[in-house]
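Quick review question:
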């Protein structure tokens, strides 16, 4: 019995299904399958129950709790910024701003996912749009929703849009990171097949091969790292529009990079060149837009009054 036939047999015996043709056709993946079946020392996703609290018919999902963590971190950080001398903000306003931001994140994030990633499925099953606890939120849709919320809030408080955006930008990354941890708990949005020592087998993945835990990469880079950069940058007075510009540059760059480790959505796959993903298409424009905004912000700041 040849090596590949033996691996196929062992895989079928272990998992009750045939080893995917993609794995058999690619020697590197075949070797990886052999490692999984032979040594079984790969990390395994803990397969956490998505329901954190169950009280009779009431169920509180981990994904929802991560959104609560995100909103609480927004309010806490916003209150800290509002208390700074000459901030121009009151702590009471942070709660109102959070209300508009939360609506933008939830509505924009959900409908952005429906529009950008799985429109045909939700057209056929429209009620699934409301099952947010199952996952399926788009950062780019949420960004558009928050922009609309900031426009409304700016008008109500007689501020410019970028006065609000510069205040909000440092408050977002930690909440974003919490959302990615929610994805990890749900065992969704896993990464591509890998042979790195920390590769993780996700129970929901059809091939049961080690993959990048890309949700954790995103929580660390998009959450903690970008928060640190923007928070430290915003601690000193900056030209109007500069902080929000840096936010766009950081998030666009980070997301384009991390997509190389994340498995493309199965319903879309690679949308161009056999490597470009929808996330990269949506993220790439953020970088030149942010750079242009940053240049304009500093040029205006240097101009004499």
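Suggested answer, residue by residue:
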């Amino acid at each position: 019995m040849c090596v590949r036939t033996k691996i196929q047999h062992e895989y079928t015996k272990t998992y009750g299904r045939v080893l995917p043709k993609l794995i058999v056709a690619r020697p590197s993946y075949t070797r990886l399958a052999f490692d999984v079946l032979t040594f079984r020392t790969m990390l395994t996703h803990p397969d956490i129950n998505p329901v954190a609290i169950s009280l009779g018919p009431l169920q509180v999902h981990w994904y929802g709790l991560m959104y609560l963590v995100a909103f609480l971190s927004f309010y806490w950080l916003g209150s800290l910024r509002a208390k700074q001398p000459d901030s121009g903000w009151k702590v009471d306003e942070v709660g109102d701003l959070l209300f508009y931001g939360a609506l933008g994140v939830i509505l924009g994030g959900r409908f952005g996912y429906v529009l950008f990633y799985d429109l045909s499925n939700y057209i056929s099953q429209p009620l699934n749009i409301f099952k947010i606890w199952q996952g399926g939120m788009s950062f780019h849709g949420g960004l558009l929703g928050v922009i609309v919320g900031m426009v409304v809030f700016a008008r109500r408080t007689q501020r410019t849009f970028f006065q609000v955006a510069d205040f909000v930008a440092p408050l977002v990354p930690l909440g974003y990171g919490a959302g990615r941890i929610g994805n990890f708990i749900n065992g969704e949005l896993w990464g591509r097949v890998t042979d790195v020592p920390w590769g993780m087998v996700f129970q929901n993945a059809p091939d049961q091969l080690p993959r990048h835990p890309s949700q954790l990469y995103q929580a660390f880079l998009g959450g903690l790292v970008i928060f640190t950069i923007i928070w430290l940058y915003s601690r000193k007075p900056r030209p109007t529009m500069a902080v929000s510009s840096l936010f766009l540059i950081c998030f666009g760059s980070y997301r384009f990079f991390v997509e190389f480790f994340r498995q493309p959505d199965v319903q879309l796959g690679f949308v161009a060149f056999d490597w470009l993903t929808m996330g990269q298409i949506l993220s790439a424009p953020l970088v030149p837009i942010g750079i242009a905004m940053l240049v304009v912000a500093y040029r205006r700041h240097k101009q004499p009054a």
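Why it works: The two ends are 82 Å apart (CA to CA). Residues 21-25 have pLDDT under 50 and may be disordered.
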